[in-house]
Structures are given as C-alpha cells and as structure tokens.
Design a protein that fits this description.
340 residues; alpha/beta; 7-stranded mixed sheet; 6-stranded parallel sheet
C-alpha cells in the first residue's frame, strides 16, 4: 500500500510501503475511514524534534476492523472502532488509575496516515460502536481519537468546574477542543487567547465567552482586567512553548490549576517562583482511552461536533500539501480522505 513517510524536516512523501500485518496476538488491523495531521507532527516537520531515519506518520485514527490476533476478544472484524494515540492494555495499575498514557505496556501509535494500520494492544486501546456511523459522523469520531481527547484532558486536569472561569492558551486544534470541553463541563466564563479571526470564530462557536488577542505582559494584563485582578481558577496550556507556559502561569490565580497538554519545547521553571505562586499543575500525554466511551457517545448523540476543527480536507495522496498548509497556518487541522 501507499502511506505517509517523513524523511526529514519538510520532506513528507506518500510512498509505497509494506502492508501492515498481525505481529502479535494482541494486534488488530483496521481499514481507516479517515485520518489526519496532528499539530505535534509539525515539530519534526519543522526540524524541532529528533527523528532517526524515515518515520511512518500518523497517530489519529478511526475505521473498521479487518483482522485481529488470536488473543483479541473485545473487538472483531466488521466493527467500527476509535482508538487513542497512546496504546494501552487497559488493565495495568496505571490504566486502572485512569492514566492509560502511562500504561506499563504502553507505546505510541504510528503509521495511521495510511489506508490501513496495525493497532497493538487492540483490546485495551480500541472502543467499538454498536452500529456503523454515518459518513457525516466520521470527522467527529476521528477528532475523538486525539485532538478532542487531549483538549478534554486539559480541561479535566485543570479542574474545570460548573460556573468556573477558564482561560485557554493556544488557538490550535487542541486549544479549540479545550474550549469545547470547558463548555461541556459547565464553565461560566471561557476566555480564549487567539489572534486569528477564523480561530476566534470557531472558539466562540465552541463556547468561548471572551477573546483576548494580546500576548505576553499585555495578554496577562488583559485577562487580569477581565477577572477583576483575580485570574482564572482553571487554565489550559495547549501549545508547549516557554511563552505559552509563562502566559498560563501569569493568568492562573493562587490555588488555581493549570492543565498542560502541549508537548514542551523550551519550557523551564524557576523553583522560587513556582513555590510562591501556589498553583497546581497536571498534564502530559492525554489518557484518551479514559474518555473515549463518553466522548464517542456525545458525538453519536449529536451533543458535540468536534470535527468542525477540520478546516481543510484533502485526499491522502496530497498529504504533503496538508503539512504545508498547517505549517503555514493556512489550516487549523487537515483531514485526509482515505479512498483506497
């Protein structure tokens, strides 16, 4: 088959590779209904993350099971499934505690920007629907696999509560999903930090009550003004840069909580400042598997439509253009049609 391979910074190709196959009895092979490009894929694309040799790209996926290993019991061929970008057995102590992204057997999904993909630890990773979703549901189900799950985790980690005040730092796909999550969790005020008109519009559609375009000290001052000098009790950091973390720290009130899901690049902390700020922090790779059943149910019932975050749709053969569009901020998130 053909699949997406990154050969180096800026060098993404859709080229012929070996078909995926069952390698362990706990594997499943799925035929993807759609796939997409993640903001985290841009780190190696921009040369900001180390890669040793060509890499098979893609970790967001949904589709139909076509084959399972001999030990797989919870999913079967013909079922539509969604899985997390973090593969997990769903039985280890960390999974039982709700942190599937730290599973003792865990690994990260790869190779999903392709028509077919191998999913290790299928029993613990994949969740099947009762019926086959309609075609118009596919983008929304795909979003659950990572970007919605990550935004939801950011809100959960930040302890978003009903009636609370939330600040979302980052207007990429995960940040926008954080806005949606905070709205679903009942936050009364959701302040989205964004400088881009299309993203501002989508943030408001997902539930943002205020938009702050300023950055740095001006952005912090603006949010402190909006909150009467108090700050927000819940802050979602959805970028992973030093500047964005400084922004999150600057707008979080004492006793408040920062949920951070942006992969850190250039983030550091001053111990004295951290000590006296009295802010809670929880984050890391999202344990999406914890949230999958609930989020899939919300999508299927029409309560949320996270697939609106896909503002560019391309055939998978044009994946290189999808990367360029996201890198150049011409697209928030690219959905790749899988027609083969």
């Amino acid at each position: 088959m053909y699949a997406t391979v990154m050969h180096g910074p800026g060098d993404v190709r859709y080229e012929q590779v070996s078909d995926p196959r069952i390698e362990k009895p706990t594997d499943a092979i799925i035929k993807l209904s759609a796939t997409c490009i993640c903001g985290s894929d841009l780190w190696p694309y921009r040369g900001l993350s180390e890669r040793n040799g060509p890499a098979h790209m893609g970790h967001e996926y949904c589709g139909v099971v076509v084959e399972v290993g001999s030990e797989v019991k919870t999913v079967k061929p013909g079922q539509f499934v969604v899985g997390s970008f973090c593969l997990s057995d769903n039985t280890c102590p960390h999974c039982a505690f709700g942190f599937h992204s730290s599973c003792q057997q865990g690994e990260f999904m790869t190779g999903a920007q392709a028509p077919y993909a191998r999913v290790p630890l299928a029993d613990g990773t994949l969740v099947a629907t009762v019926e086959m979703p309609d075609a118009d549901m596919i983008p929304h189900m795909l979003a659950v696999s990572d970007v919605l799950g990550s935004g939801w985790y950011a809100a959960d980690a930040a302890q978003v509560r009903k009636g609370g005040t939330v600040v979302v730092v980052g207007d990429g796909a995960v940040g926008l999903m954080g806005v949606l999550a905070a709205n679903q969790m009942g936050a009364e005020r959701i302040i989205a930090m964004s400088r881009h008109a299309t993203r501002q519009q989508l943030a408001r559609e997902f539930g943002a009550t205020d938009i702050v375009a300023e950055r740095g000290a001006d952005g912090i001052a603006r949010i402190m003004d909006l909150t009467d000098g108090v700050g927000a009790e819940s802050v979602l950091e959805c970028v992973g840069m030093g500047e964005s973390m400084d922004q999150a720290m600057g707008v979080c009130r004492p006793g408040g909580t920062i949920g951070y899901v942006g992969v850190p690049h250039g983030v550091s902390f001053d111990g004295q400042k951290l000590f006296f700020s009295q802010r809670r922090m929880l984050g890391g790779p999202a344990p999406v598997r914890r949230f999958l059943p609930d989020l899939m149910d919300r999508v299927l019932k029409g309560a949320i439509r996270p697939g609106k975050v896909f503002d560019l749709v391309l055939p998978i053969a044009q994946v290189a253009e999808g990367y360029r569009a996201m890198d150049e901020r011409r697209a928030i998130k690219t959905l790749l049609r899988v027609d083969a």
